[in-house]
Amino acid sequence: MAEAFLLGEDPTGTPRVISILSSLVQRAADRNDSLAAGRIQSPPNLVARAFLSPAKPAISIRDYLDRIFLYSHCSPSCYVVAFIYLDRFLHFHPSLAVDSFNVHRLLITAVLTAVKFMEDRFYDNAYFARVGGISLAEMNYLEVDFLFGVRFELNVTPIVFTSYCSILQREVNLLNPQIPPRMPCLPSEEEPCSNNCHNKQLTA
């Protein structure tokens, strides 16, 4: 199953979902960076401004996700749930484009939210702020903004979880064309995914 492969470890001992998610998000950020470079930028709205970094972080998306995993000690499933939350957030705020200036703050907040929802024991916001390289005040603010941004829709059913694993599995097939594609397991009509087959900004 896609879940078993994604949540398993690569030869370095890191869950595969981290490298796959970082590749997908990196591609989205690079695409939006390129689009932004060729057009006049309008002032960011309140939601976009909350996650906007004053400068492009020096750490790569992959290294950032690795750092979060190393210090948070959360389960690999949290990264799938964080991806679901990020997708929901972007669905409710379609004017927000994931780029190099906001992606790190979006990721640390999505993972923090997933960890609090999924894990019985977890580190507090002060700890996550240090891991993410931001202040505690900013971490608290981003968490509240994110929760309101997803309209507190934090529940993730097994069907939705599996459907997003299939999305991430397709990313594996893009990175490794020699791997035979797996049949996607999409949500049923009774329980569709949060935004009618995923946010195109991330998966296009």
Automatic annotation (TrEMBL):
A molecular function (GO) term = protein kinase binding
Presence of keyword Cell division: yes
* Short name of one Pfam family: Cyclin
**Biological-process GO terms, alphabetical:** cell division
- Domain of life assignment: Eukaryota
Q: Which UniProt keywords apply?
A: Cell cycle, Cell division, Cyclin
- In the UniProt record, the signal sequence range is none
PANTHER family, per this entry?
CYCLIN-P4-1, PTHR15615
Q: Which family does it belong to?
A: Belongs to the cyclin family. Cyclin U/P subfamily.
What's the protein called, per UniProt? Cyclin
